[in-house]
Amino acid sequence: VAHTNLKVPFGTKYLDAALCSPASVKDVHTAVILTHGAGGDMNFKHLVSLAHGLASDGCLCLRFTCKALNLGYRVKAYRAVWDYLKSLQKFTIKHIFIGGRSMGSRAAATLARQLSDESEDAVQGVICLSFPLHPPAQTHAHQQRSEDLRGLPERMPVLFVSGTEDNMCDRVLLDAMVKEMKAQVEVFWLKGGSHGLTVKGRSDDSVLDEVNLQVIAWMNKQQA
Fold it and tell me: What total of structural domains would you count in the chain?
């Protein structure tokens, strides 16, 4: 797996980004963009681990950092990264999946909705790791936070990976929201997983491997 640090132009600024690519780039047609939650950056170990897993499976993975806590601003940054990825000349990218962790998955869902209004094949699917359906103990916020997900079109595949003990994603509420979505949804519940996808009594590596396998298997199914 090759690893390159990049600066992605965003208005008058630049976003820190990192590209993981397979050893052979000539057969790469699928790319994934990932970003972090509130208070993190692109080097959060789940994102690094998933990026390497994806690259080992033959996908490009572009991670980026945008620390703003304003969702609208983060969506604009995400769009700049999406534009940048499409402009990379040395790859023939046919499919782009977008995703992220926690607040980053909210930004991905919002961008997916915007892009799907503009074109049918802009986004191949959305990956939501620990989607923050509501703040801790404030389950009433779930309608507002899931609005963009419910607005995604029928042809859009969406994967949720959430821990059963996530205090920002009540399981009953997420299952109910998924029923309201038009998109093609799969949910993987990590048994005992927290919002940070850690599980008491399990090593981080074993949890990361399990999550990565789920994401990669789901992506391969979308392209079969």
Answer: 1
Q: Give the three-class secondary structure for 187.
A: strand
> How far is residue 74's CA from residue 102's CA, in Å, rounded to a whole number?
13
pLDDT score recorded for residue 90: 83
What CATH number is given to the structural domain containing 154?
Answer: 3.40.50.1820
Q: Torsion over CA of 67, 47, 171 and 70, rounded to 10 degrees?
A: 10
Largest CA distance in the chain: 48
Q: What domain range is 202 assigned to?
A: 2-222
User: Which H or E element spans position 73?
Assistant: helix 71-87
Per-residue pLDDT of 108-150, as tens digits, reads: 999 999 999 998 889 999 999 999 999 999 998 899 999 999 9
pTM, 2 dp:
0.97
Cα separation, 110 vs 123, in Å, equals: 12
Pure H helices in 26-65: 45-56
